[in-house]
Amino acid sequence: MRSRPEFPGPLEGRDLNPMLQDIGLIIHPPLLYLGYVGFAVNFAFAMAALHSGRLDGAVAHWSRPWALGSWVFLTAGIVLGSWWAYYELGWGGWWFWDPVENASLLPWLLGTALLHALVVCEKRGAYGHAVLLLSIFTFSLSLLGTFVVRSGVLTSVHAFAVDPSRGLTLLLLLGLLLTCALTLFALRADIRAPYARFGLLSKEGLLGAAILLLCVACASVLLGTFYPMVFQSLHLGSLSVGAPYFNTIFVPLALCLMALMTQLPRLRWQHLAAQRRIKVLLPCLFGLLGGTLLSLAYPEPLRASWLGLAANVLSLWLMASLLLPLLQPVALRELTLYRLGSLLAHLGVAVCALGIAQVSHHSQEGGAVLAAGQPYRLGAFAFRYEGSEPIIGPNYTAERITLSVHKDGKEVARLTPERRHYSVRTMNMNEPGIKWGLLGDLYVVLGEKMGPGAYAMRLHHKPLVRWIWLGGLLMMAGGTLRLLARRPLLANHPAPATAPYPRLEQETL
């Protein structure tokens, strides 16, 4: 056999999809898959524990860094994907409850539950069976996420490389793996897992409730994502499940989870720590007062609902619960790198939740057809269309317009949204004009040309939208610090007093 290459080759190839011509999409998929693959190690630890018939603190100790590392990569992938969708897709949102987005959220939720179950299993010898099941289902959901992305079984704006044959292979692998794992779990359900007594108002009790809430939240997202496919497969018609369902079910669960998190600093293993009443009430009062004032700071049409008010209050309450104790010199001296990682990760949740609450309930949006010199007012901001110019890019042509933005009579920004045409792909793309800011973004998307020099536009003001990704960065930083400051397991470290057998020695794993 011999090849017959054609020379000369074409001057230009077919080109990537314009949505993929971005640095964010070079990094985003590998981060997600590193997170997916990492949970395979936790699955292997669970299978080894079931096979050997024992699960103790040493197994949890060695499994935990793999869960934490996978969780950090998965968090990074989700945060980067959300940021890319915001600045590249031109619709002004950061999360769409799209099936592919949900496919990455599912293992993240169970992975978070697994992390906390491993903490309790290592330190107190409890939740051993929960660790096994969460290890199995977290990795299974990672495979399910890969299946959703590659098979095209669910319609998604994020599906770029669909291959039904590979999707079928992944589905068969998932079915085989899940069947074998659950069968082994059923046969070895009497595995000798450590047992520890603890009170309901203790760190173990709180973490157990948090794990349960995370599992329920995961189940609700799983149901909403796959219900349309099951409904259609049964020839019952077609339907779609959108943001109203997910927001109605998921948001209250997230608020309940944050309410539990506000109590985290005052809890101890086995019992509730005795504290002065002022130390308990001060973070609560800070959250109530700050959240209420934050909601009332907006004019009447933009004030949050009771759900938004609750999100503001709980976010600030959680921040205060984590940060106010650091005002004491003793707490600062005891703040090790290990504890700092935990503080940053939970602080990231509060920061992210506050950003979500603000952008969901207090955003402003307007649409207009503007020609050169025409103004448009959106809340406190006055936009003025200054003019347009043609642009020739490396593989596209574009029309770029310039908008000046004034507030209180002063120019605060100049936005330059573009409408691009990629000739090779014969696709049009909108590049939004964004004025970044820690307190909020101004965001303009250019629409169709409506006449000589006139364009349809969508204009947005999104308060604290940066805090969503800032919270994600804090979570990633916290997880990384926990990995770097991981405590060693000594061979002579004693097992919990309630454990019926000694811990595994370090050299046996």
UniProtKB/TrEMBL annotation:
<dbReference type="GO" id="GO:0020037">
    <property type="term" value="F:heme binding"/>
</dbReference>
<keyword id="KW-0472">Membrane</keyword>
<dbReference type="InterPro" id="IPR032523">
    <property type="entry name" value="CcmF_C"/>
</dbReference>
<feature type="transmembrane region" description="Helical">
    <location>
        <begin position="280"/>
        <end position="298"/>
    </location>
</feature>
<feature type="transmembrane region" description="Helical">
    <location>
        <begin position="128"/>
        <end position="148"/>
    </location>
</feature>
<dbReference type="Pfam" id="PF01578">
    <property type="entry name" value="Cytochrom_C_asm"/>
</dbReference>
<feature type="transmembrane region" description="Helical">
    <location>
        <begin position="336"/>
        <end position="357"/>
    </location>
</feature>
<dbReference type="GO" id="GO:0017004">
    <property type="term" value="P:cytochrome complex assembly"/>
</dbReference>
<dbReference type="GO" id="GO:0005886">
    <property type="term" value="C:plasma membrane"/>
</dbReference>
<keyword id="KW-1133">Transmembrane helix</keyword>
<keyword id="KW-0201">Cytochrome c-type biogenesis</keyword>
<keyword id="KW-0997">Cell inner membrane</keyword>
<keyword id="KW-0456">Lyase</keyword>
<feature type="transmembrane region" description="Helical">
    <location>
        <begin position="304"/>
        <end position="324"/>
    </location>
</feature>
<keyword id="KW-1003">Cell membrane</keyword>
<comment type="function">
    <text>Required for the biogenesis of c-type cytochromes. Possible subunit of a heme lyase.</text>
</comment>
<feature type="domain" description="Cytochrome c assembly protein">
    <location>
        <begin position="10"/>
        <end position="151"/>
    </location>
</feature>
<feature type="transmembrane region" description="Helical">
    <location>
        <begin position="33"/>
        <end position="53"/>
    </location>
</feature>
<comment type="similarity">
    <text>Belongs to the CcmF/CycK/Ccl1/NrfE/CcsA family.</text>
</comment>
<feature type="transmembrane region" description="Helical">
    <location>
        <begin position="105"/>
        <end position="121"/>
    </location>
</feature>
<feature type="transmembrane region" description="Helical">
    <location>
        <begin position="242"/>
        <end position="260"/>
    </location>
</feature>
<feature type="transmembrane region" description="Helical">
    <location>
        <begin position="207"/>
        <end position="230"/>
    </location>
</feature>
<dbReference type="InterPro" id="IPR003567">
    <property type="entry name" value="Cyt_c_biogenesis"/>
</dbReference>
<keyword id="KW-0812">Transmembrane</keyword>
<feature type="transmembrane region" description="Helical">
    <location>
        <begin position="65"/>
        <end position="85"/>
    </location>
</feature>
<dbReference type="GO" id="GO:0015232">
    <property type="term" value="F:heme transmembrane transporter activity"/>
</dbReference>
<protein>
    <submittedName>
        <fullName>Heme lyase CcmF/NrfE family subunit</fullName>
    </submittedName>
</protein>
<dbReference type="Pfam" id="PF16327">
    <property type="entry name" value="CcmF_C"/>
</dbReference>
<dbReference type="InterPro" id="IPR002541">
    <property type="entry name" value="Cyt_c_assembly"/>
</dbReference>
<dbReference type="InterPro" id="IPR003568">
    <property type="entry name" value="Cyt_c_biogenesis_CcmF"/>
</dbReference>
<dbReference type="GO" id="GO:0016829">
    <property type="term" value="F:lyase activity"/>
</dbReference>
<feature type="domain" description="Cytochrome c-type biogenesis protein CcmF C-terminal">
    <location>
        <begin position="171"/>
        <end position="485"/>
    </location>
</feature>
<feature type="transmembrane region" description="Helical">
    <location>
        <begin position="168"/>
        <end position="187"/>
    </location>
</feature>
<feature type="transmembrane region" description="Helical">
    <location>
        <begin position="467"/>
        <end position="485"/>
    </location>
</feature>
